[in-house]
Amino acid sequence: MKKILLIIILAVFLFNDSATAIPTFGTLMPESGEYQGGARSDFIFKRDVKDYDGAKTTAYYYKASYGLAEWFCLDGLVGLGDVRAERIFEKELRYPFNFSGGYGWRAKVYKNEKYGVDWVFGFQHVSTHPGMQWHESRKHEIIWDDWQISTVMSKRIWKIIPYCGMKWSFTYLISKINYNRNRRISTSPPIGLVVGTDFRINNYIYLNVESRFFDETALNAGFTIRY
């Protein structure tokens, strides 16, 4: 068990120079007619976007999931996020914290109770609308728009549920300068690797940490309460 925890920690902290964006929510899903909620912090350290030297965002969310069936649930996020973006040959602008939210769904396509294995497919969309910024007497606004399809598989071991998988994602940066609108798409590879784990504190509370690789550089951590 200690070796598995060490591998997960090393994956998160040593390899996050090439880690991705929207978390997958993992394989921890509510039962039919029940829901689970919690909090999460997301840190995207770098996303390559056309015409930008780099883009970053930090967000803090309340998250919730509701089970429509034993194998299918809806997910939602609401919170605050900022954006830091640097256009080529221009100064990096930091757009202050403002509304950020998202939605998605997950479907459990395979479950093996005997061996503690779950396989989940999901769709996620997150959009951050930070506050405006003034630079050189011009009004700057921006929206961070993320879309993602993911698949992860987990294996329950004692109190931990490590999981890994793949994701396909892309990001739009939608900027306005004095109301002149531009939309730029991410240029990094759309395919990413997901590595994470849930840790059961008791029958109701779980801690989570996840990192994604190759399509962007990101890390998220939080907790989930099953009601």
Task: Spell out the key features of this protein.
227 residues, disordered N terminus, mainly beta, 6% helix, ten-stranded antiparallel beta barrel
Explain what the structure shows:
With 227 residues, this protein is mainly β. Helix content is 6%, strand content 68%. It has 1 helix and 12 strands; from the N terminus they run H-E-E-E-E-E-E-E-E-E-E-E-E. The chain has one helix at 2-14; strands spanning 35-47, 52-69, 72-87, 92-112, 117-128, 133-135, 138-155, 160-177, 180-185, 191-200, 205-213, 217-226. It has a 10-stranded antiparallel barrel with strand order 1-2-3-4-5-7-8-10-11-12. Strand 11 (205-213) and strand 12 form a beta hairpin. The longest helix has 13 residues, at 2-14. The protein is elongated, with a radius of gyration of 18 Å. The two termini are 27 Å apart.
What about the largest sheet? 10 strands, antiparallel, barrel
What is the H-and-E element order?
HEEEEEEEEEEEE
Structural class estimated from helices and strands: mainly beta
Radius of gyration using CA atoms only: 18 Å
- The stretches of 5 or more residues where confidence is low (pLDDT under 50) are 1-20
User: What is the assembly state of the chains in this entry?
Assistant: single chain
Widest β-sheet, arrangement of strands: 1-2-3-4-5-7-8-10-11-12
Shape: elongated
N- to C-terminal separation?
Answer: 27 Å
Beta-strand residue percentage: over 45%
